[in-house]
């Protein structure tokens, strides 16, 4: 059979009609492809960037304009480029995160040198630069910020805030600066404390709300419940690093909110979701600063105990998920075993 097919194919010669038909198909495909490229260029890349690409030049992320960077990260956030992007390695998983040194006032003892002063052969300079900086000015004592005793629920609020921070950085692949306002909106939507001004009383309540938000249709492309449970591990890792890393994380979050507030002031009101967005951002900034000062005054032992509570709650959530899965499977098996048509 194989020999017969090969002989038959060798005897077939394309006539002029077949050639013309194929050329028409190729021309039509080429024109449609050019139209798609033009529409893609209009919606994403500027003419200058497209000229560089067409001329064969290599384009890096730094070559993109601010608007192009925002569009690029929005595409990541919506899952359009997830398969093409290397997952971000969190700074709290780096060995340098365990060696953060802060003064008694909370300021960073080791300040980074300007880029021009860095040597090319410096070992670990890139890794050190990935860890966010601590406070630039000394943190005031809590007694100066408020005459009242701090709430015992601040440990629960810290878990809520850290979760929203870790999720936002995961969502933007570690670079919230590309879309500060969008990052703030994610923080406010995930955090029960910062977004709604609520005061969850247990770690379970705080984590349940965060998981519910990250499993909503807006963020479902990130991985749903499995991804949400993974972010809890990020919170546990941060708590395990102790006070210096927590202060640096909260300072990074404070800068995120400040930059988002600047962008919110420059945006037109119609682009903001609600009239109270700017006031919500301002209030979130104050709360972050207050809890940063509170974290700085807490003993190191508090974080290991809190990490153990968060780990236990995650285990309970996973066991509950597994029990639901097994129950659903049993229900499906029972339904499958029943007769769809019963004879009377």
TrEMBL record:
Shq1 C-terminal domain span: 147-261
InterPro entries (alphabetical): Shq1_C, ZNHIT2
Pfam families, A to Z: SHQ1
Name the record gives this protein: Shq1 C-terminal domain-containing protein
Source organism (scientific name): Glycine max (Soybean)
């Amino acid at each position: 059979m194989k020999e017969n097919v090969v002989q038959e194919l060798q005897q077939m010669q394309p006539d002029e009609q077949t050639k013309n038909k194929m050329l028409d198909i190729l021309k039509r495909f080429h024109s449609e492809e050019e139209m798609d490229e033009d529409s893609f260029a209009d919606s994403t890349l500027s003419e200058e960037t497209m000229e560089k690409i067409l001329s064969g030049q290599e384009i890096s992320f730094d070559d993109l304009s601010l608007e192009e960077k925002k569009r690029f990260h929005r595409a990541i956030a919506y899952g359009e480029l997830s398969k093409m992007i290397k997952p971000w390695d969190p700074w709290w998983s780096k060995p340098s995160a365990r060696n953060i040194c802060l003064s008694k006032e909370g300021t960073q003892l080791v300040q980074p040198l300007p880029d021009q002063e860095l040597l090319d052969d410096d070992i670990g300079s890139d890794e050190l630069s990935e860890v966010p900086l601590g406070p630039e000015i000394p943190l005031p004592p809590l007694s100066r910020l408020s005459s009242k005793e701090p709430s015992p629920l601040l440990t629960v609020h810290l878990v809520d805030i850290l979760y929203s921070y870790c999720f936002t950085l995961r969502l933007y692949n570690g670079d919230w600066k590309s879309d500060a306002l969008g990052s703030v909106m994610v923080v406010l939507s995930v955090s029960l404390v910062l977004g709604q001004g609520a005061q969850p009383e247990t770690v379970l309540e705080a984590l349940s709300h965060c998981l519910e938000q990250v499993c909503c249709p807006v963020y479902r492309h990130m991985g749903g419940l499995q991804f949400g449970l993974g972010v809890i591990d990020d919170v546990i890792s941060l708590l395990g690093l102790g006070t210096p890393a927590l202060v640096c994380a909260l300072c990074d979050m404070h800068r995120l909110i400040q930059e988002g507030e600047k962008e919110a002031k420059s945006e037109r009101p119609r682009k903001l979701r609600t009239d109270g967005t700017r006031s919500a951002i301002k209030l979130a900034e104050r709360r972050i600063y207050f809890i940063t000062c509170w974290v700085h005054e807490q003993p190191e032992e508090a974080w290991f105990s809190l990490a153990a509570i968060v780990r236990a709650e995650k285990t309970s959530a996973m066991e509950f998920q597994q029990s639901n899965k097994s129950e659903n499977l049993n229900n499906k098996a029972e339904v499958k075993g029943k007769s769809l048509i019963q004879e009377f």
